[in-house]
Design goal:
Strand content: 5-15%
Helix content: 25-40%
Number of helices: 12
Order of helices and strands: EEEHEHEHEHEHEHEHHHHEHH
Structural class: alpha/beta
Length: about 350
């Protein structure tokens, strides 16, 4: 296992981060603990949670992921692990979270973090992330900015001040962003520098063979501002394993939760998946290994967040992690990407 510095922080995170959003929905406590034990035995020291998990989000299961991780964390050497979690933002209609997260202001951030700490059974988190921006911004499958959707929101400076207070109180070591765009990353950094406040050290965004949007503006931003990218959904909800090509009814989030993965329900996705799976098999590489190795070999990716519904699936994903892709196959990957995404020049 390789370890990398996360942005300008003092955190040295494993290049694999164990994602936990299945815990409490697809994955029950015994298997979740087995996954955590196995990942740590392989050298993983980085675990990512969120207060809204598991997904799909429901009032009946809200907070169970952190509670499951907390019951495991209580018997671990806390200083050997890097625990990340996230505060849910407003405008997503989840009224069971803190009676509906109205803002990312001082009151809401403190309440969110205190709840996470209680469920995780720890006094602090190493990385606290804003799960999505409070402001109007296209995300989760939306691709156009809509000025008509503007609304009042907590100024970014006030969000920074609230996070600084929590850091000074010892409840978090560093903070990061998630589902953020270049403007937001820059504004957080600019205001932090201007007012002498802590800067974000990371951004957690979707990144995979099927979603390379981050490279169009995000990569330059994290390079110049020295943030680490935490790539989530490197297997695109399992699409890039090829299992749905072989068996459209295969067990997974697509078949278990209709409508959950609508961000991938686009006309170019099936042919792109088929092309990547074909490429992998022509080169004698498992499709999942192709997808994971692609993320690992990107200079901008500090750690890739891998989730699994069961221990067997996690073992398979970790076993193919050390695959190295040569220049030829990387060139072919880019050719497929250009064919099916037609990115702007």
């Amino acid at each position: 296992m390789q370890y990398r510095q996360l942005g300008l922080s003092q955190l040295e995170v494993s290049e694999i981060c164990l994602g936990t959003m299945t815990f409490g929905q697809q994955t029950e406590l015994p298997d979740a603990h087995a996954q955590l034990d196995f990942a740590c035995a392989q050298g993983v020291n980085f675990i990512d949670c969120a207060e809204m998990y598991p997904v799909p989000v429901r009032g009946e299961t809200y907070g169970q992921t952190e509670s499951i991780v907390g019951s495991w964390l209580a018997r671990q050497p806390r200083d050997k692990l890097i625990i990340a979690t996230k505060a849910a933002g407003p405008a997503r209609g989840m009224n069971w979270i803190r009676n509906g997260p109205r803002a990312l202001d001082r009151t809401n951030l403190r309440a969110a973090l205190e709840g996470s700490l209680q469920r995780l059974r720890t006094d602090y988190v190493d990385l606290y992330q804003l799960h999505w921006p409070e402001r109007n911004q296209p995300m989760f499958g939306r691709w156009k900015f809509d000025p008509a959707a503007e609304r009042e929101c907590t100024p970014i400076l006030q969000q920074l001040e609230a996070l600084a207070e929590l850091q000074q109180g010892g409840k978090l070591r560093y903070f990061g962003l998630s589902n953020e765009h270049p403007w937001g990353i820059m504004e957080f950094c600019r205001l932090a520098d201007l007012h002498g406040l802590p800067r974000p050290v990371s951004v957690q965004n979707a990144f995979s063979l099927l979603n390379r949007t981050f490279q169009y503006g995000g990569e330059e931003t994290v390079f110049r501002e020295k943030l680490g990218l935490l790539a989530y959904s490197p297997l695109a909800f399992g699409l890039l394993t090829g299992k749905y090509l072989d068996n459209p009814a295969a067990a997974g989030r697509f078949t278990l939760f209709p409508g959950f993965a609508q961000r991938y329900e686009k006309p170019n996705v099936p042919p792109a998946v088929a092309a990547y799976v074909s490429l992998a098999r022509r080169h004698g590489v498992a499709p999942a290994a192709l997808a994971l190795a692609f993320c690992r070999q990107q200079w901008s990716v500090t750690s890739s967040i891998i989730g699994a519904s069961d221990l067997h699936q996690l073992e398979e994903n970790l076993s193919c992690w050390q695959t190295d892709l040569g220049a030829e196959i990387l060139h072919e990957i880019d050719a497929i990407h250009l064919r099916y995404t037609n990115p702007a020049p």
